[in-house]
Specification:
By secondary structure, the chain is mainly alpha-helical. The chain is 50% helix and 10% strand. It has a three-stranded antiparallel sheet with strand order 1-3-2. Strand 2 and strand 3 form a beta hairpin. It starts with 17 loop residues before the first helix and ends in a 7-residue tail after the last helix.
Length: 121
């Protein structure tokens, strides 16, 4: 394909959005981890591992794989950037959310990459 006609250049990274591509490049995440981080960033609240499994891959992924991806995201972010809670919403499910520190770090990454902060609100 002609590069001039490739209006979604991030597709070559295996991601679906420009935000995911920025997270892949900035944090060194896999495309699946970038999808999870994007979901957590946009949610600005708790998401269960089951929800993240559905988001993580086309057709859904496994809860076990999400736990591994969350560990990698935790390593990529500054310390304290992501929280985990068990028994979320009175269930046995585990969940995660970005802390203020994690949201700020994502904002800084997006702003540094393309000046995108605020574009996704």
């Amino acid at each position: 394909m002609n590069a001039a006609l490739n209006i979604w250049p991030w597709r070559s990274l295996g991601v679906d959005t420009r935000m995911q591509a920025d997270f892949v490049e900035w944090f060194g995440l896999s495309s699946t981890e970038a999808r999870i981080l994007e979901a957590l960033y946009l949610a600005k609240g708790w998401l269960t591992h089951k929800q993240l499994a559905l988001i993580s891959r086309p057709g859904g992924g496994s809860v076990g794989a999400v736990k591994n991806h969350i560990a990698n995201i935790r390593e990529a972010l500054d310390r304290g950037g992501i929280e985990q809670m068990s028994g979320l919403e009175g269930t046995r499910w585990y969940g995660n959310r970005l802390t203020e520190r994690g949201l700020t770090e994502c904002d800084a990454a997006l702003n540094s990459m393309h000046g995108l902060v605020g574009e996704f609100d």
